[in-house]
Write a structure and sequence with these properties.
Elements: H1 2-10, H2 17-27, H3 42-49, E1 58-62, H4 68-75, E2 79-84, H5 87-97, E3 104-108, E4 121-127, H6 138-148, E5 149-160, H7 161-165, H8 168-173, H9 176-188, E6 192-203, E7 209-219
Parallel strand pairs: 1-2, 1-4, 2-3, 4-5
Antiparallel strand pairs: 5-7, 6-7
The structure holds S-adenosylmethionine.
The site of S-adenosylmethionine has 23 residues, from helix 4 and strand 2.
């Protein structure tokens, strides 16, 4: 039901053109990705501290853009594959970080397409990608992430709250986090157990920090 609320905001994007839009941005040469990461998500450090994930674990950075977060994760000691459906983004990521860390690789791939059979990751990290995926493709997104995770695999989503803030219902209720949580449950609960929500932020220009919600989910072994 609540997904309908999101559909109102995102339905215009539910076309194949959204891929072209990203390709244009990344190929423009001077595209300024103001949200670039300056650190790895806090939940990953928590998971390391609790021993849930260890150095050497395999990670996929979904929608890696110019590759900064993938690089930071590789520097942290994880084996990282950064994927993006934009060829220009991957070209830029390789120019920025190619050869700088043996644990790091980049590949062009659309996460809403069938993934390669041999992909298995301990953790998927998604900073700001799920929230730009057109709603008609979000069930495929959830199904594919489930497929590429190993048993006990997890996903961390970072969802900018501004994306949800424009919703009419949110403005009326000021209940942004609960509406977003319900949306996440609608899409993911068939495949994942939601383990934790944590407050976070995306760095933006001039030191401005955009509030974001981190969502940690664990793969369900048996799905209906
Ligand atoms: C808001 S940017 C975030 C980039 C990066 N995660 C970061 O934080 O710097 C979203 C990225 O997702 C990519 N993207 C969008 N839809 C995708 C899809 N279906 N498969 C793979 N990448 C996608 C875009 O090309 C873009 O690079």
């Amino acid at each position: 039901m609540l997904s309908k609320i999101f559909r109102k905001k995102r339905k215009k994007k539910a076309t194949p053109q959204y891929k072209l839009k990203w390709e244009k941005k990344w190929s423009s040469g001077d595209f300024d990705a103001s949200w670039e990461a300056d650190d790895i998500p806090v939940l990953i450090r928590d998971m390391e501290a609790k021993g849930i994930i260890k150095k050497g674990a395999s990670l996929i950075d979904v929608g890696c853009g110019s590759g900064k977060l993938s690089f930071l994760l590789a520097e942290e000691g994880f084996d990282v594959l950064g994927i993006d459906f934009s060829e220009s983004a991957i070209k830029q990521a390789k120019t920025n970080y190619g050869g700088k860390n043996d644990r790091l690789n980049f590949q062009v791939h659309d996460i809403t397409n069938e993934p390669p059979e041999d992909w298995k990751f301990d953790l998927a990290v998604d900073k700001g990608t799920f929230h730009v995926i057109p709603l008609n493709l979000t069930p495929k997104y959830a199904m594919n992430i489930h497929k590429i995770l190993s048993d006990n695999g997890r996903i961390i989503l970072a969802y900018a709250l501004k994306k949800a803030w424009k919703l009419r219902e949110v403005k009326k209720n000021y209940d942004i986090k609960n509406i977003l949580k319900q949306h996440i449950e609608d899409i993911f609960s068939q495949y994942f157990t939601i383990e934790e929500y944590a407050n976070s932020s995306f760095k933006r220009h001039f030191g401005f920090k955009e509030p974001a919600l981190l969502i940690l989910m664990k793969k369900k072994q048996f799905i209906k």
